[in-house]
Amino acid sequence: MQLITQIGSWFFCIIFPIILILSPSYETVVNGTRIAVILALSQIIVYLVKRIVNRPRPYRALNNVIANRLPVCVYSFPSGHTCAAFCLALVLANGYPHYQALFLAVAGLVGISRIYLGVHYPTDVLVGFMVAYGSFTLEHMFSVSSLFI
What span is annotated as the signal peptide, if there is one (predicted)? Predict the structure, then answer.
């Protein structure tokens, strides 16, 4: 589970769009740029909501009874890893529809791993998905490419 959860990590979410943007394929560059924009928007929202809500992580609230925890920041709500994983998955599923189920399933596993590792409640994961979907929708509504479709 610790490997799966890394798909939503900041390192992966910075490196992956850069690799796509450096691709010789125009479509891949567009998808990489979309991922970068959506990730930036969603992670700003996640950061602000975490600071406003100040929800403690499950292992803190349950007095360290959860043994699978990872070293993470103090606040739990919403899940930034889940949000990031779904940002990636939604853009990739939109760009490569034949692999849609795979991309969304992997993002779902990231959310499940966050609960399993004791660093998020199910509602944190659900709202992380909602922020990703909202960011994806906003980017799609206001992107230049969607104006010509």
Answer: none
